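User: Before I run my own analysis I want an independent prediction to cross-check against. Here's the chain; please return only the structure tokens and, at the end, one sentence I can use as a sanity check.
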Amino acid sequence: MATPYRQFLKKVLNKEIDLDSDTLRATLHTSSYTPDLTAHDYVDDLTNELATGGGYTAGGVALTGVAVTVTAANSWATVAAVSTSYTVGKVVRPSVGNGFVYRAVTAGTSGASAPTWPTVVGQTVTDGTVTWECFGAAVLAIDWDDPTWPAPFTAGPFRYLVVHDHTPATDATRPLVSLTDFGSNQTGGSGPFSSALDSQGAFLIGLP
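Assistant: Structure tokens:
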């Protein structure tokens, strides 16, 4: 799951980003870029983007299918299951809705029976080896189609994928949206390269 830059919501509220109409682009960056999710807010804070070559074009690719949805907790599609593996960031609702959703903050396997779910946002509960945090009474999901570079793609190595709003005129005014850390250097293998998003969305924001 992508991680939003921390000033992203500020840029939306300041009307610097319009997710319904602006063009978002994804760029690839080497491990020499040091992300600062709090301080970095515009494209001119980025460094070490891949150069044009090997199927990559500097400036990245435009994203398609950008969508923003708000879902009430009891209507959230993913229901918590027992004895199931969960990764960090996965959001679930109890099998019997209680008006809240829960985000995994520690990965693991859920227990053989459901925990007693807390109903105060920010409180946590242990469920087997998973730790759940009460995430909110609704979920705002921001999503887009998987960024894809067509074959033959041999560019690299790169470690980060950054999404930004490309509609403003200059890099100093193009807000950063999110960061994906692949965890290690990646290099294209001559086929297409696609960064697969989590099925729940590019990133999720809990709403009280």
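Sanity check: Residues 3-66+144-207 form one domain.
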